[in-house]
Known about the structure:
Number of domains: 2
Number of strands: 19
Radius of gyration: 25 Å
Order of helices and strands: EHEEEHEHEHEEHEEHEHEEEEEEEEH
Amino acid sequence: MKPPLPDLSGAGQPLRVVFFGTPPFAARILDDLAEDGQTRILAVVTQPDRPCGRGRVCKPSAVKQTALAKGFAVLQPGTLRDSAVVAELEALQADYFIVAAYGLLFPETVLGLPRCGCLNVHASLLPRYRGASPIQAAIQAGDPVTGITIMRMAKGMDAGPILLQRAMGIDINDTAQTLHDSLAALGGRLMLETLARHRAGTLVELEQDHSLATYAPRLTKEMGQINWDQSAKAVHDHIRAMHPWPGAYFDLNTKSEGQGQGQGQHQARRKVAVHPGRVGDPLGPGSPPPGTFLGMADDMLAIACRDRAYLISHVHPSDAKQMDAQAFRCGYLRRLLPGEGLCAGKYACDCPPEES
């Protein structure tokens, strides 16, 4: 454990800060810093505007929108390795660089610019879940607790010494979105506490135990695919972790419309996004294999997992709008996966007659 860090900013003077961040998580922390009378934000650094949506229109990041609304100068370099960018940052003479989900690597030349160093707000209890998706990793692992770590940035991914940590429970129905919002609020409060301890001369560093480090890689769309051949609890955790992005889904293999039942009929694959539901009842001996559509229970679509049914209230087929489970069962599954064997036992289907 290292001794308290000296206050190099000048007695009674606000800390001079450059803030680095991009998504809504960082924007919430910027909001809190902007309200702190003991912090002076010299500039805000965020990633360049990126095209997004179907129209591929360039949109500013959440941090840029917040910074402009508050009147802060905004920098949007494509890299921090450009000597002109380094010179511009150096000229600001900051006490701290504060970083939250910025998204670009910090070279050592930039780490050494502020007089008191670079602080990072990370959404896990380091050294657990270093990397780009700590919130999703904690939910998918079924962890009961996560938290926020304020660390001093050093060479290596999220490997710097810890300054403050605060734990937070994960509810069984938390999604990546709800937990993100709670952790962002906690991150802002904890960063303000970190700066207050700095000013009081009571901030202490604690080196991480690198042997305990785990990693949470950047998410891809493919990671959303559901594996039904596991416990229903694991399926529930996966769906919650992937909500709202990249979204949990399964591929529905269906007979193409207009094809007969005879030889030569081909299969079409349709992606169906799944919203978080709940774990259903246990499945007894001789139950259908995982991934089987069992029918309806409490107006929810029941799908077999390894041990129990998983119940889903809403889905979003790739070729349609979001719909409730009853509409999906009486439309897609009647039309695309005929067979009354899918609606047996306590999951008996109560669809209206076809002509209705």
